[in-house]
Amino acid sequence: MQAVSGGGSIVVLDSATFEPFAVTKAVSIIASEGITPIVKASLTSSAIEVRAANESVILIRGLIVEGERTPPSGGQAVPVIRLFGGKLTLLDSIVRHSAGAGVSASPGTRIFLQGATFDDVSGLALGGATTIITGCRFVNIGGPISVAGGSAVIKNSIITGLGTDRGDGVTVSNQDTRGADVLLEDVLITNTRIALQTSISAAGAGSQVVARVLRSTISGNEEGLATKLGGSILSSGTNLIRGNATNGTFSGNIPLE
Description:
By secondary structure, the protein is mostly beta strands.
């Protein structure tokens, strides 16, 4: 990594297992066709940690990024990928097997996920980030895709919980006085505890927390829609909210443009 100049590329040619590493500059890390390299986290270190400037673009394609299922004794599980700065683009990769989040992001960061599979992780922790997710699969997740004080667009994706130990699907909330905005378009959420939930804490009184749902299906969950602590969930177009133990209701409708 240190031998590559900013903006350079690393092409991985070996289906080996690699130790955790940090990224501090713009770089592309691409697995060669037919190669399945694994980057493995430790008990105390994320598999990939990004500490680049916020304008630096980090591209990762074709990797398997693996976490730790067991958190350290007396501590919290680390996320598989941790983003402190930079713009992360994750393409056609697998993030799996962690008691922590698949990706944890700091405010001001940007994330683009396309064609990625998140398997057996505790969702995503997108605190204050700007995120686009398209064509992704979240399977056997034990925690939510959490958007707190940021914005996210989730399109053409599937979110399913982890058996009887399932967590929530998507949660949208403020972070201090920063509101949050999420769009779900052509998304399936099933086998979760609460599929889609908005909330506003006391510190965020007056902030806007909104989830908009378009052409999506929420079915087979313990609860479909919930605005128990504030915020709003708005419907646009045709959505299927059925077959949940409690379906819940939309806060209102927005017409299609």
